[in-house]
Design brief:
This protein has 21 helices and 4 strands. By secondary structure, it is mainly α. It is found in: Membrane. Pathway: Secondary metabolite biosynthesis. It is a multi-pass membrane protein.
Length: 439
């Protein structure tokens, strides 16, 4: 991707550096809650610094000037204000055992068996640095004690959680014995080919639509169509669908590349991160979308990279009763859901604000905020249909229809601003294959 790493690093490095230093020296930075607040304020100051005016016209780089520091601020809120990582958190570490005698093998082990153990905050400075780096960059919390959703962990890892009294959730279709390295690499290679070709196909159509190719000096706003205000019943959903697909394949391709590199190079380079269970899919299934509509889209289908941090902050500020469905689906539930979308919207709005182009960060933020209303409306409609004993076919049709209508109405507020930022003009693949066969 055509990101200018030099200017980007200079802008966004300070917040992560402050947080990293604070975690590896807890006796200094976690000595009192006041010191933690001051450290968090320093991270906040780094966000202000990153959002200062600049002259970088690269769309992806400019967007990250705002997006990345806001994400660092959210992570810092969780790690500085809501928790104390050194005593609170542990991570799973793989250890190799070699049972030399026959008696040991009969007790349930075999030569070269893999076992796992918890690694608390290390005493060794070098291991402490790696531990902290993993905590800050492992956004999904895979293999950490604080994350209850662990996707496709094998039974050997599950036992470590069980012994610690931590009840984790695993995907229903997972392979309990764990996926082999060879089969995982084969699967990811195929995913890479599919993602690459389909992303290339998306780019082929993006390059031919002027709505996605706004020039740097243009003052045209692309909120609702091309030109602004176009409510075409076919063009709008086509552009939203194309922009969403391109975003999906860019993220999935990056995820697949990271998995291939980590597992491909092996544990000698990446330790436990070289295991297949550390790289579960980012996305849910289409059933989540077609069965539940908007709640399924945002709750399960769309990626969960930032979900844990959003939920942690929200549950602290707006606690819900674990045994009360009214709390979850009532006003408090709506407020909690709105806060989650507000956190996500603030990150994207900051990225939009940092662009040199004419963008609309407040409209983008509003586009995220109102998603909670759509989710609540869809749940209410579904509940009424269930009470009315509406047939499954009609119920599914109504679910898909509302989801399509809501996307048609609100998604251009998000996709349109991303197009105005110039993100869809970024060079994300080195070789275009589709253009060679389809002019």
């Amino acid at each position: 991707m055509d990101i200018q790493l030099g200017p980007l690093t200079q802008r966004i490095i300070w917040g992560p550096a402050i947080l990293f230093t604070a975690i590896i020296f807890p006796k200094v930075f976690y000595a009192s809650y006041a010191s933690r607040i001051l450290t968090f304020a320093a991270v906040g100051a780094s966000v202000v610094w990153a959002l200062q005016p600049h002259d970088i016209d690269n769309a992806a780089t400019s967007y990250l000037f705002g997006f990345a520091p806001l994400w660092t601020l959210i992570v810092s809120a969780m790690l500085l204000l809501l928790s104390n990582p050194a005593p609170d958190f542990r991570r799973i570490r793989k250890i190799e055992i070699k049972l030399k005698d026959e008696a040991a093998r009969k007790e349930g082990g075999a030569v070269g068996d893999a076992q796992y153990e918890w690694e608390a905050f290390p005493e060794s400075f070098e291991r402490r640095c790696w531990w902290t780096l993993d905590l800050m960059m492992n956004w999904r919390g895979l293999g950490w004690s604080f994350q209850r959703r662990q996707h496709r962990i094998p039974d050997a890892v599950k036992r470590v959680y069980d012994e610690a009294g931590i009840d984790v959730k695993r995907d229903a279709d997972e392979k309990r014995c764990g996926q082999s390295r060879a089969s995982f690499l084969k699967e990811q290679c195929w995913n890479f080919v599919v993602d690459y070709v389909l992303l290339d196909l998306c780019i082929h159509f993006l390059d031919r639509d002027p709505w996605f190719n706004k020039s740097l000096n243009s003052d045209e706003r692309l909120l609702f169509g091309y030109p602004a205000g176009n409510y075409d019943i076919l063009v709008r959903p086509y552009r939203v669908f194309l922009g969403t697909l391109a975003t999906y394949f860019v993220m999935d391709l990056a995820h697949v590349v990271i998995a291939l590199v980590s597992v491909g190079l092996g544990p000698s380079y990446f330790g436990t991160h070289a295991e297949p269970w550390q790289h579960p899919p980012l996305w849910g299934t289409l059933d989540d979308l077609f069965q539940r509509g908007l709640p399924g889209f945002w709750g399960n289908f769309w990626h969960d990279l930032f979900r844990f941090q959003f939920l942690t902050i929200t549950r602290t500020l707006i606690p819900l009763s674990p045994n009360s469905k009214q709390s979850e689906h009532g006003i408090r539930g709506l407020l909690a859901m709105t806060l989650i979308f507000a956190l996500s919207g603030s990150m994207h709005a900051a990225g939009s604000y940092a662009e040199l182009r004419e963008t609309t960060p407040l409209w983008l933020f509003a586009g995220f905020m109102i998603q909670s209303l759509g989710v609540a409306a869809q749940e209410m409609i579904t509940g009424l249909m269930v009470k009315g004993k509406v047939g499954n076919g009609v119920r599914r049709g109504a679910t898909i229809g509302f989801w399509w209508f809501w996307g048609w109405l609100t998604a251009p507020m998000v996709i349109g601003d991303m197009a105005a930022c110039g993100l869809f003009q970024s060079k994300v693949i080195p070789v275009k294959i589709v253009d060679r066969f389809w002019k």
